[in-house]
Amino acid sequence: MMDSIVAARAQSRARSNAAFREARRYFPDGTSRATVERDGGPIYVTRGEGAHLVDLDGSKFLDLNNNFTTLIHGHAFPPVVEAVSRTIRDGTCFANPTEHEIALAALLVERIPAIENIRFVNSGTEAVMFAIKAARAFTGKTNVVRFEGAYHGAGDWAEVGQSNSPANWGPVQRPSSVPGYRGAPASVADDVTVLPFNDVDALEHAIGSVGGRTACILIDVMPSRAGLIEPEPEFIQAIMELARRHSILIVSDEVLNLRQGYQGASERHGLTPDLITAGKIIGGGFPIGAIGGSSEVMRVFSAEHGRPAVPQGGTFSANPVSMVAGLATMQAMNEDAFSRLEHFGDQVRLGLRTAIARSGAPFCVTGTASLFRIHPRSELPRTYREAFMSAEQEETMRRLTRHCISHGISLPMGASACLSTAMTAADIEHVIEVFDDFLSQTY
Ligand code: PMP
Q1: In what order do the strands lie in the sheet with 417-418?
Q2: Which pLDDT belongs to residue 74?
Q3: What is the pLDDT of residues 314-326, one digit of tens each?
Q4: Cβ-contact 140, 203 below 8 angstroms
Q5: 404 and 324, same structural domain?
Q6: What separation in Å is there between the alpha carbon of 436 and the centre of ligand 1?
Q7: Which of 130, 280, 282 to mutate to test the pocket of ligand 1 (most atoms within 8 A of CB)?
Q8: Residue 6: what pLDDT?
Q9: Which of 157, 256, 291 should be mutated for ligand 1, with most atoms under 8 A from CB?
Q10: Is 190 in the same domain as 321?
């Protein structure tokens, strides 16, 4: 362990910094994604090797981001590389369907109980956008109920309330419908009810008043951006009862959390949704999104009886490259692979919690399966507001992520960390040791 610490301290950022200087000439803010970690400037990557990233300056990092939880097998997973290489020789996109989309659809329909029918799109944002349209078309109602701080992509309605802050978030039980961007039409926020997570009273009260005009309750059962918070069983139960009583559809956004298990996150947490949105892991590292659900609801996409209620296309939807990469990924994620990954997840969470308990430092760890998040607070957060970081807490997390980087670990600061099947027991040990080392140096 000490050898790797010494080696990692010698990291240079010279070439990454030069690339960033050049990039700032072309991109507002220097990159194409607001979500890129940029503490001290972004680290430019030249390649990924299994569990690791290699940067422009030749340093190697254990990747706990995995492109925002997409790469469940890590980088350049050989079955994906093989399937994609074989497929692109035969062309990469067609206006016609291919058998590859049938194969991936069959796997998902067979595994995930709430998915009887499915449609593929190109991103999680698009999947959530179409799920909201489907819920509206099916119910003939407009309003969307969603939970404060959860991330559901960049669609106008989906992003209302995702970035609430103390300056604008309003009452605890009735958070403000803060639009995602300046200039968003006021009607967008009017049609979104934002509620606190894990609060049955607030939910009952709000649905009592907006239930009659609500098309769907949009929920990520363990909202990652809101703090990777554990859902309380009574809360999940209340959502199902109220939705049924008021003819509201439940849209379970599993773009990120499908990786929680062989049958996904809703199944794991006892939620029975009408629609599921998926993305990330099911594309094996290529762009993808999917909307799945009961055949009754999914019929809104069908043109069998004339123009579909919800027309849905997309130039690259179900392109063969994403389909074969996704299939190779998901086939390798059999029940054993999910169990092994979960075991590593349990080990890392236990190790981090043990280190925290030993040091008495004000930290806690949330997460399940292959996901975890370190919070700079002692009590486990139950809501977005509890997980919300003050400037001082952000500084603590910045120091932790810097410590990790200087010891060869890329730990996302404001997002969930995740494991991949490419990681070894030694990698897990290393994460725990480096965190322990940070705590003993700091507290
Ligand atoms: N929903 C959830 C729960 C997500 O985590 C994300 C992406 N982090 C999205 C939707 C949007 O997916 P994409 O970035 O593929 O558009």
Answers
A1: 364-366, 371-375, 417-418
A2: 98
A3: 999 999 999 999 9
A4: no
A5: no
A6: 31
A7: 280
A8: 40
A9: 256
A10: yes
